[in-house]
Amino acid sequence: MDSFTNNQVIPVIDFSIENLQPDSETWMLTSKKILRALEEFGCFVANYTKVSTYLREAMFKASKDLFELPIEIKMKNISKTPYIGYVGQLPFIPLFEGLGIEDATTVKGVQSFTSTMWPSGNQFFFLRSETSLMFSRIVAELHYKVVRMVGENYGVEKECQTLIASTSYHLRLLNYKLPERDDQTNVGFIPHTDTTFMTILHQNHVKGLEIKIKDSEEWVFVDSSPSSFVVIAGDALMAWTNGRIKSAYHRVIMRGKEERFSVGLFTFIKDILVKAPEKMVDEEHPLLFKPFDNYKLMEYLITDEAKNSNCPFNSFCGLYPSLNKK
Question: From CA 72, how far away is CA 74, in angstroms rounded?
Fold first, then answer.
């Protein structure tokens, strides 16, 4: 059985420092902390104060209102890409519902979602659009800094800039209900890694997110605070770094007496193939993954082959099939 500890061991890294500017000593020291955290845990907690208390509360209020909408309206949140639109009413994760805003850093993307969920005549239409857009853009700034720091540490700044220019941002609103009966599961979301390049999660005061410690059976919960954003490495980042950074296994377990809300900025690579830079491949680090389309990976996950695989990501693009074995 998986063991669990409530000791906070996930590194916390401060992004609120005033002089955190590229090429500064503070920038270089922070970037080294980030790389160590990602290589050891596949994640870290960012103390990021650019999201104001007002914006944070407005975001969670809009999220709560959304999940109270009738199911037939929520199901209008559709996407060509699996798991980007509405996800819910699934027997293996009965407590979970999720809604998605594609291209969340663009006016068009946010207004398309908002007009679907709320008629344009709704008095809160523009407020909710502005809230989602502002939140997404501020969190995207954090993503940019982290990716740039990783690229600089590995000496692949040029490839990193190409990657950033090819990033798409999707905002996901996540809700976890409480079990209705004592005999019902308290699993909010099953253990998994993300197909993203990077995921940045912001949760309300209700704990639930847990990270699996690499090469162990130990899980630790991630504490929440108004300025906490959990930065999680996805499968695409693992491939791009040629396995130097592993995607983090995580799950949600409902332990309290309140439903849980969280907001996540999910980043994907579009229009170019995800592939490790030449500098990341050498005798000590042979190439582990074939170049792949990040969106094709998400489409693959709904196939029977993926569902029957012990490691769908490696089945999709891994060069060593033996790694599929548990």
Answer: 6
